[in-house]
Amino acid sequence: MSKITVITNVEFGKMINAASAALAANAAKINKLNVFPVPDGDTGTNMSLSMASGAQYERDALDTHIGALAKATSKGLLMGARGNSGVILSQIFRGFATSVENKETLTARDLADALMSGAQIAYKSVMKPTEGTILTVIREAAAKANQVANESDDIVVLMRAVDEAAQVALASTPDLLPVLKEVGVVDSGGQGLVFVLNAFYQVLSGEFNEDELKTPDNAELDQMVKELHAGAQANVNLDPNDIAYGYCTEVMVQIGKGTTYDHEFDYDTFYNHLAELGDSLLVINDDEIVKVHVHTENPGEVISWGTHFGSLVKVKVDNMRDQQQAVIDAQRAEEVQVAKIAMTQKQVDTAVITIAAGDGIAALFKSLGVQTVISGGQTMNPATSDLVDAINASDAKQVIILPNNSNIFMAAEQAVDLVDIPAQVVKTRTIQQGLTAMMGYNPEAKLDDNVREMAAMMTEVKSLQVTQAVRDTMLDGVEIHHGDWMGIIDGDIAVVSKKLQDTAIESVAKMLDSDSEIVTIIVGEGTKLKDADRLKKAIEALDDDLEIEVHEGKQPLYPFLISVE
Known about the structure:
Blueprint: H1 9-31, H2 43-61, H3 66-80, H4 83-100, H5 108-125, H6 134-149, H7 155-176, H8 178-183, H9 188-205, H10 211-214, H11 218-234, E1 247-255, H12 267-275, E2 278-285, E3 289-296, H13 299-307, E4 310-319, H14 320-344, E5 350-356, H15 359-367, E6 372-375, H16 384-392, E7 398-402, H17 409-418, E8 423-425, H18 431-437, H19 447-458, E9 462-468, E10 473-475, E11 478-480, E12 485-489, E13 492-497, H20 500-511, E14 518-523, H21 529-542, E15 547-552, E16 560-564
């Protein structure tokens, strides 16, 4: 292993992009480290998307000065940060960038100082830092870097020590945070940071396979296809009859298999023939599979060509002319609806932006006066840039954000700091708290008055989320099995049962007291209204003086969201 004493822009770019690739490859693994066995563990997804934004900004910078590249990476992470883990990761790189802003290249001492700065800024960004998290990992890794830099100028030696220290710190997180030990997992954010630091080491030691940066996988191909289509769908002025190649054709072939196989696979031969059949061609392969996307007038010929090289695994053909017409029709309908809303709404002094999943829930929020609903929440946390864009587009004098999820708090607060419009966050943890907070909203009131009233209102509601466990675990002394239904009351798993209805009824019974007056049931995607009606009757049997409302929320993953006030 050769010695390295200076990191140039070349190595730095590889380090950042390798970290992004490592997080993308391991996002699912990180997601599974979620303490609660709920189906929306998203730390890995959030960190991967955040780092991908940072890597994109770094690539776009086209600079040779590491200070400038680090600043670009930090800006990309800042704007792309999702979830608390993504925000903390962005703060680590903000501290890193601040430390190296005047550095054209980095020595071992520079790198150690940058990691130390990253740890310090990350700790400052959290109001109540908790050990046993990503913070512990960056602190221990930076401390080791500082120690080694005092003894050696070899950056490879330093990063090897950093990598090892990070892994030791990660292994210690269950000892520092009891809930991790009970569940039997390490901290998910800490695991994500370990992948980042390990990628740095692999690049500097020469162990990283650069092909991993160049060859997109199937998921990335799917994203590329979506981007190709997004450009076309955005053009509502395009006449469907003007589309030269009308069939979007996707084929996946298992190379060298099947009865039709009669050609040895050669990428150039395979690609060049397809290139003559249409446009928007994408071809990705490994030793076993080749995946094709092409716009053509002859989907049959594309499919036939694939069979010469192996066995068909997947075939998908879409008529883009019909799709384009549907886009035009939908856009026109939306424009009509927007015009109707504009006629009935007036500009408000204080606008409310909220985050929610489910068309029905979005409609509930808008009926209460919310101006903008960002789609997301439990299954997809919005990026800082999404919130910044929504605030700037609000056309209001001041803005309130309702996150409805504690994992969005830090991104929301970061967005508030990035805009010129006065804005504040009311820290609603659930959809139910968000809806109740809106009862204290006055579009004409001052920002501080609104925030105070809305924060006070949200404390009047108890929130229940009913969902299904995605793995076996033990939490708070309760044994939970994959497929069990869980009643989560204000963040705590209160009821575990084999049946959905039993879980919901028992959970509501735990929430009721002598002051309870109103129960609201929000029905999720795929849940039948007759099941909600059964639940309503069961709750009435518990207390016939209760007022019970049922709304169709269409939220994913949670058959019932229930509030008691």
